[in-house]
Recover the amino acids of this structure.
């Protein structure tokens, strides 16, 4: 069967199951779940795999599912990846009323695209020179850290990101190439976006400890932890002129506890923040500056500060050969003028961790409107969001695995990882540490 016939056969199967693909997207959209809690979403994917006769393993990193086409075949192994989890946005139209979980991130579309690709590729899997792994993974959004800390303490996970945890567990050891598409809404219409990578980050939890006192009667007897943070925040802002433009630095905090009572001097203030940048080197440099600013805030008022650093995600490094193949296939379906190349994105994803150790790409699919993570985010056109995007996956896998899979073999042969798996895990562990600073004046 030649390549043209393979494509026609796979596309015909996708078109035949168009409603099934759209229905799974809508079902997930209306029942969002937070990371490592995606039990209902995981069940929906398993039911589809069972209906399609796709063998799978489940409960990987708690809720992950790993289906396979062409099991046991020799040759390269290509993974198509989709994410199960939602963010928190209580204002989103389809948010869970109790938890605030909301698919304003577009992950529901990723799962539909993976299902669509699975339907098409299953039809031709016996004609491909390798295997296709359909990997539905948990917990990409780096949120609800207290819950994840509990999971870690109880031994269920070690790392907060789903792909990080799956790498640790060895679930990517047998995979050669990784591909994952993500929703984008910056450009209207049928568009495909290929950015030049993305930022990585460190997650930080900070606790300023002061001393309570009556805020009206005897504030001089207290140590104001909120003032400590305000000074620390000003110190961080004073450092911004030292951030290099090419490092794409972002430092953004939120206060999760600002005190106990307005009538008391705040004795405990809790803050979460990210330090993002384009390279691991820049992340470490900026993180040190932020730590210094946090300690300076505590020193200024005589408070204590506890800083807990958690390894976030590494920068995305898109493989150039894969980028070219994916862009060609997207152009074939939506026109070359609608495939856009851009600079690095300021956000972060644990897909970046994978691209440090495996050849991979993380492009973006258009046909959505409203800002990502905002209440306005929605699907503008189902055909592009679910069907055409599924076909881009199919075309890319066929390019990689048709014939003798020479294209995939060439990419694997030419790839030099930035980190081995062991080096990667050691790096994550090195980014996890605590600082305790106490004013001794």
């Amino acid at each position: 069967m030649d390549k043209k016939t393979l494509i026609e056969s796979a596309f015909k199967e996708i078109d035949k199951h168009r409603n099934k693909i759209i229905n799974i997207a809508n079902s997930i959209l209306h029942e969002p779940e937070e990371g490592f809690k995606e039990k209902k979403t995981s069940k929906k994917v398993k039911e589809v795999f069972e209906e399609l006769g796709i063998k799978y393993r489940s409960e990987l990193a708690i809720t992950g599912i790993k289906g396979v086409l062409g099991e046991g075949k020799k040759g390269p192994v290509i993974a198509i990846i989709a994410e199960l989890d939602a963010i928190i946005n209580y204002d989103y139209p389809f948010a869970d009323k109790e938890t605030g979980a909301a698919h304003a991130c577009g992950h529901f579309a990723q799962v539909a695209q993976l299902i669509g690709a699975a339907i098409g590729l299953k039809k031709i899997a016996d004609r491909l020179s390798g295997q296709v792994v359909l990997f539905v993974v948990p917990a990409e959004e780096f949120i609800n850290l207290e819950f994840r800390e509990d999971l870690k303490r109880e031994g269920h996970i070690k790392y907060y990101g789903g792909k990080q945890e799956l790498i640790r567990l060895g679930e990517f050891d047998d995979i050669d190439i990784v591909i994952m598409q993500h929703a984008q809404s910056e450009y209207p219409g049928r568009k495909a976006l290929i950015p030049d990578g993305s930022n990585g980050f460190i997650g930080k939890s900070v606790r300023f400890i002061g001393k309570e006192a009556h805020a009206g009667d005897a504030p001089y007897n207290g140590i104001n932890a909120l003032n400590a943070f305000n000074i620390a925040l000003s110190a961080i802002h004073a450092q911004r002129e030292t951030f290099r433009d090419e490092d794409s630095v972002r430092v953004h905090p939120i206060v999760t506890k600002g005190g106990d009572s307005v009538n008391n001097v705040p004795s405990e203030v809790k803050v979460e923040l990210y330090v993002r940048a384009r390279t691991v080197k820049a992340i470490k440099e900026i993180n040190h500056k932020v730590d210094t600013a946090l300690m300076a805030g505590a020193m200024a008022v005589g408070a204590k500060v506890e800083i807990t650093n958690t390894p976030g995600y590494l920068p995305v490094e898109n493989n150039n050969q894969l980028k070219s193949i994916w862009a060609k296939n997207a152009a074939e379906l939506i026109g070359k003028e609608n495939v856009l190349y851009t600079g690095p994105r300021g956000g972060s994803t644990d897909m970046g961790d994978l691209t440090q150790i495996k050849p991979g790409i993380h492009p973006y699919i258009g046909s959505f409107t409203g800002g990502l993570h905002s209440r306005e985010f929605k699907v503008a056109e189902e055909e592009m969001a679910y069907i055409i995007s599924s076909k881009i996956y199919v075309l890319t896998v066929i390019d990689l695995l048709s014939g003798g899979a020479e294209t995939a073999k060439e990419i694997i042969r030419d790839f030099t990882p930035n980190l081995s798996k062991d080096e990667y895990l050691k790096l994550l562990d090195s980014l996890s540490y605590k600082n305790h600073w106490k004013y001794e004046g």
